[in-house]
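Work Package 3 (structural annotation) set out to generate three-dimensional models for the target panel prioritized at the project kickoff. During this period the team completed the workflow that converts sequence records into discrete structure tokens, so that structures can be stored uniformly alongside our sequence database. As a representative example, we reproduce one entry of 431 residues exactly as it appears in the project archive.
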Amino acid sequence: MNGTYETLRADIATIPVIDCHEHTNGPASGPTYSDPLAALVVGYVNSDLQSAGTERGLAAAMDTSKPLEERWKLFEDIWKRTQHTSYARVTKWVLREMYGEKELSLDALKRMAGNLLNLKDEKTYWGILDKAGIKCRIVNIWVGDRKIIEREHVLPDRDRYMIGLPGYHSIHSWNEVYSHTQQIGRTAASLDEYIDICREIFTRLKGRGAIGMKDQSAYNRTLRFDNATREAAEKVFNFFMEDPRRSVGYPESKPLDDYLFHAFMRIARDLDMPVQIHTGHMAGVRNDIAKTNAVHFTSVLELHREVRFDLFHGNWPYMGEWLYLGKNFPNVALDCCWLHIIDSIYAQNVLTESVAAVPHGKIHGFGGDYGDSVEFAAGHLSIARDNIAAALARLVDSGWIGMDDARQIAADWLFNNPNRFFRLGFETVTV
């Protein structure tokens, strides 16, 4: 590491952070670990461990009905073949910073066993986030929108709610329609009524503090949302609505799915709500990456020019397309949530290139994407700060920007840009 990096890294550590994407409910949902190995094998690292070994082999290693010593023999070999990935780097950070252990070993696990984190404890939970400098989290959770509307579930002060869209437009049966509309005590007998009820649900959610919408449909379908006709959509809708015993599958449901998605984008425009879109890499293994490339989403960006879109995950591994969309569409922001631990080197490279290619005010620098295992979100943020410092140090050393420019860009990426884009209302950070 050179002096430029070290200086920037120290400065970036002091910048407050808006975490642009989490799935978290607060301490009430925090895990209480009872097994040291399970306290370290959390979230995304499971995918790399499965890729290095097998699902069956990893499952046997994580079977807590067996003695730790027996499981370590199974786990050690898989870990040795995985330990240098970006996901594994978070596990190492948690091991070191939360438990004071330098290496993952059987002895380290035994020492951890009597000192495992209790994240239901509010002081522990919030203390980790405070120490990390996470001032606000933008959250996509599944407690049920009715509970938000009726105030049965109240978000912590630090969190801001994003409406989850896929369930509302990816409908396949009468029961799904009924379930959505009953959240506000209404029923729908036509496509128009269904859209009207959804508008009312989203409006009420905004009144309860929702700041935007989030869509992760790329897990199940292509990001190409055709501008389907009303006739085609209504044909699908009417088919299952006239007989509750009927249902449709994909791709037969696509015209209705597409039509409703575009209707919801118009509602997002009318409610002045930004829309977060999952692009690129997906959690788990054995996924089809081609359907998730953000370039498939271009027609939506063209059509809905008054809607602000936040494109997720660096579109990994499609770097060029992601930067292109950010450069060419005024209504697009580029979000690095999850990216820093999908591929840290990619993250450094795309951030370096972004300064030269895209107005730096369009980049959102961090989203933990971990849920209530907040120690892993804190570890992810530490790696994100490493990557941001590395990217900006390259640009300083090449003479592209100065040190003061680099510090301010980092503050904009981590705080000011999402603060402005999501209209959170915090004071601007100047460094």
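The first strand starts at residue 17 and ends at 22.
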